[in-house]
Every structure is written in structure tokens, then in C-alpha cells.
Amino acid sequence: MAPALPPAPPLLQIQPPTTAAVSAALTETTVQVKSDFRGARIVLYGAVFDPGGHPGDVVVIVRGPDQPVRITRKQRIAGLWLNSRPVVFQGAPGFYRAASNRPLDDIANFGELRRLGAGLDHLAINAPAEQRTVTRYGVRDVVVSQLGADYYDWRSAVVRLKEKAHLYDEDDHGVRFVDRGLFRAEIALPAAAPTGVYRADILLFQHGRLVSARARTLTVEKVGLERALYVWAHVRPWSYGLASMAFALAVGWAASAAFRRD
Predict the structure, then answer these.
(1) Which of the pair, 142 or 208, is modelled with greater confidence?
(2) What stretches of the chain adopt beta strand conformation (E)?
């Protein structure tokens, strides 16, 4: 009599999420910057899983690598318009985009948006000479003693300059639900987009409260001759500077010789 076979293991059952959750993916995770780079458009697809079928809002925040921003303003001194002493903001993102399916103020309250840095009004930009912080609206808010009340004017100028260069953007209709629970968002990278690692945060809100979040990364990198020159300039700046000077002198001498022959 043949021995009895052991009982078959139970089939693996995938349990649906018990609470609301969001998931998303980028169509591209790497953008290559060449000499003819004119910008790129990345598409993000996602889905909302909610066993209770409650309505939800999706906010997508894409932030590029931080960069210092040097800014001046014109001042009238003795009848002349001169540049003021420059102010350098540290930690301003080189790229920032906040997209949502409806206005952010309708999705969450001021304190929640400020805590998450959702929207241009709530974007955290580290200013010079930060000496103390205070708590406002239930979150930490930065007070800059060196700039005083002018801090917000300078900060607004930084945001305006970035918006003009298409590096900062806020779109209340940037997230579109294409089907029940399925959404789509586009990320437009301008030609001036900085290289480095970008972070995309996908946030799911229900009744004004953050209930789920996911993060994805996007890399923007130089390739070819541009990357070789970029690495050379940053790894060996002295030799790059000397080589640039030598090349400029050679070009100048060649142009001078050509004009002498003419």
C-alpha cells in the first residue's frame, strides 16, 4: 500500500488592505541630459486602494536637489540705483512642483500643509543667519533675525525668480483621476532643471488628514561630453580652470593671426 501523501499547503491568499493606501510609479526613473536637452516630461501613474470606498485627494510633490540662491535688489543711493548686499538662501530646492486634484487649501488645513511643505506658500527655504524658531499654527516656523520683517519679501523674490525660470510650479489640477481609484500626473522638467536625485512624494488625504504616503526617486544626470566636463570641473577645478584659460588664449591667438593675414 502506497504511503499517504502529506496534505497540500493552503493556497497563498493576498489580503486586501484594511485601510486606505496609495501606490504610484514613474514611467521613467532616469533623465539623461545631453547638449540638445530641451526639457522632459515624466508621467506618474498611481492607484488608491480603499476598502471603505471613502473619497480621497492625491497630492504629488516633486523636489529637486537643494541649491544655494544668491539674490540682490536695487536700492536708490545718492540718486543712483545700486545693488544691495546679496542675500544667500541655503537649502532652496533647485526644482519644486506641487500637483493635486483640487486646490490644496480645500484638501488640508494650514498647519498640515506647512508641516508637509505642500505648496509654494509652505515650501521650506533655509535663509541666512537663522537664530531661533517659534511655533505658529501648531508647526515650527523659522524667524530670521538678520533680515527681520524683510525675510518674507526676500523669500517671495526667490519663489518669483524660480517660477519665471519654470523651476517652481503649483498646479491645482495637475493630478487627474482617469478611472475609479486610478490617477495620473505629469512632471514637466525644463531645460534648466538641475542634475541630481529628485524625490517624488505621493500623498493621500481623506477628510483633510494624511492617511497614506509613498516616495519615488528620479535621477537627472549629464551624459557624454557634458558629463565628462562636469566631472572634471568639480573633481579637479584647478586643472579645469587652467585648461579653460589655455583654450581661451589659443582661440584668441588663432583669431588674431587670422585677422592679421586678412
Answers:
(1) 208
(2) 21-26, 30-33, 40-49, 57-63, 66-71, 74-77, 80-83, 87-93, 96-100, 130-136, 139-144, 168-171, 175-179, 182-189, 196-206, 209-222
CA 89/CA 144 separation, integer angstroms: 11
pTM score of the predicted model: 0.71
pLDDT at residue 226 is higher than 90: no
Q: What is the pLDDT of residue 96?
A: 94
Domain ranges of the chain: 21-65+92-124+152-221, 224-262
Residues in the chain: 262
Q: Is 78 left (phi over 0), alpha (psi -120 to 50) or beta?
A: left
Range scoring the smallest mean pLDDT among 14-28, 97-111, 131-145: 131-145
Q: Provide the 10 A C-beta neighbour count for residue 150.
A: 12
- Angle CA(103)–CA(106)–CA(109) in degrees, nearest 5? 120
CB 158 within 8 A of CB 92: yes
C-alpha span between 218 and 104 (Å, rounded) = 24
Task: Quickly list H helices, the chain.
Answer: 104-107, 110-116, 151-164, 225-235, 237-261
The arrangement of secondary structure in 21-65+92-124+152-221, i.e. its CATH architecture, is Sandwich (2.60)
Give me the residue label for grid cell 579637479: 236
Cβ proximity of 61 and 97 under 8 Å: yes
Q: Work out the number of other CB atoms within 10 angstroms of the CB of residue 206.
A: 18
Which SS3 state, helix, strand or coil, does residue 92 take?
strand
Asked which of 40-54, 110-124, 132-146, 217-231 is least confident by mean pLDDT, the reply is 132-146
Q: What is the pLDDT of residue 262?
A: 56
Whether the CB-CB separation of 24 and 44 falls below 8 Å is answered with yes
